Amino acid sequence: MAIKIRKEDALNYHTQGSPGKIEVIPSKPLSSQMDLALAYSPGVAEPCKEIEANVENVYKYTAKGNLVAVISNGTAVLGLGNIGPEASKPVMEGKGVLFKKFAGIDVFDIEINENDPKKLIDIIKSLEPTFGGVNLEDIKAPECFEIEQTLKKEMKIPVMHDDQHGTAIISGAALLNALELVEKDITEIKLVVNGAGASAVSCTRFYMSLGVKRENVVMCDKEGVIRSDRDNLDSIKAEFSTDRDIHTLSDAMSGADVFLGLSAGNVVSQDQIKLMAPNPIVFALANPDPEIAYDLAIAAREDVIMATGRSDHPNQVNNVLGFPYIFRGALDVRSTAINEDMKLAAAKAIAKLAKEPVPDIVTKAYGEANLGFGRMYLIPKPLDPRLITTIAPAVAKAAIDSGVARKSITDWEAYELELQERIGIDQRLMSVVIARAKKDPKRVVFAEADNRKILKAAQIIRDEKIAQPILLGNKEKILALIQENSLDLEHVTIIDPLEETEKLDQFTKVLYDKRKRKGMTLTDASRLVTQRNYFGAMMVEVGLADAFISGLTRDYPKTILPSLHTIGVKPEAKRVAGMYIMNTDKGPYFFADTTVNLNPSVEELVDIIGLTAEAVKFFNVQPRVAMLSYSNFGSAQGDIPVKMAKATALAKERYPDLIIEGEMQANVAINDEIQKEIYPFSQLINRRANTLIFPDLASGNIAYKLLSELGNAEAIGPILLGMNKPVHILQLGSSIREIVNMVAIAVVDAQTAQS
Question: What Pfam families does the record point to (predicted)?
Answer without folding.
Answer: malic, Malic_M, PTA_PTB
